[in-house]
Design brief:
The protein has 186 residues and is mainly beta. The protein contains 2 helices and 12 strands. Strands 6, 7, 8, 9, 10, 11 and 12 form a 7-stranded mixed β-sheet that branches. A 3-stranded antiparallel β-sheet has the order 3-4-5, with no helix packed on it. A two-stranded antiparallel ribbon has the order 1-2. The protein binds zinc ion. Zinc ion (ZN) binds at residues 25, 27-28, 30, 47, 49-50, 52.
């Protein structure tokens, strides 16, 4: 039995989490409806059978600006959305996973580098967007830069050479702008 309906981007096995359209209750399979439960709060999906409130939460993304030889690592995406644009290593935090561990895991999966997190650069969220992006500054401890499954290219960029017009997401731009402003002080 299908408990809910999903509309997803599917490309190379990856998933975008932006187009959920849940119709059915995950507890009992009853039909969900969108209700205004409290003033000044978003509408909530509520099961018409068992009254389960289906809260739709943000998706957490952990990223790392990885420093190496005075440069930083950027990856050219080979998946939608923003295929062909540059991002720092990162990805979705699994439920129950420590956020820092997710940044380490995603970096190793995406570009073959083991890293040490130096500090938190910032947390980036935008109205109406599902993702909350947490960005760390990190340094390489071992491994060598390689191109992962979801990547066309992996390169080291000097700060002055960051391809600002070809960055994938608003959070990529904002984080790299913050990083380039803070320079050596972090
Ligand atoms: Zn229900």
């Amino acid at each position: 039995m299908a408990f809910f309906t999903l509309t997803l981007w599917v490309d190379h096995g990856s998933r975008m989490h932006t187009n959920y359209q849940f119709e059915f209750c995950p507890m009992c399979g009853g039909k969900c409806k969108s209700l205004n439960l409290k003033e000044h709060e978003p509408t909530r999906l509520v099961c018409s059978e068992c009254d389960f409130i289906f809260y739709l939460d943000p998706k957490l993304v952990a990223c790392a600006i990885v420093e190496s030889e005075g440069k930083i690592v950027l990856l050219k995406r080979d998946i939608e959305p923003q295929k062909g644009k540059w991002v720092m290593p990162g990805g979705y935090v699994d439920r129950g996973e420590v956020v820092e561990a997710a940044a380490l895991r995603e970096t190793e999966e995406e570009c073959g580098l083991q890293i040490r997190l130096k500090n938190l650069l910032g947390v980036y969220s935008y109205p109406g967007q599902l993702e909350v992006v947490i960005v760390y500054v990190a340094e390489v401890t071992s491994g060598s830069l390689m191109v992962g499954d979801e990547t066309q290219a992996a390169r080291l960029f000097e700060i002055e050479g960051i391809p600002w017009e070809e960055l994938a997401f608003e959070s990529t731009q904002d984080a790299l702008r913050d990083y380039s402003k803070r320079g050596e002080n972090i």
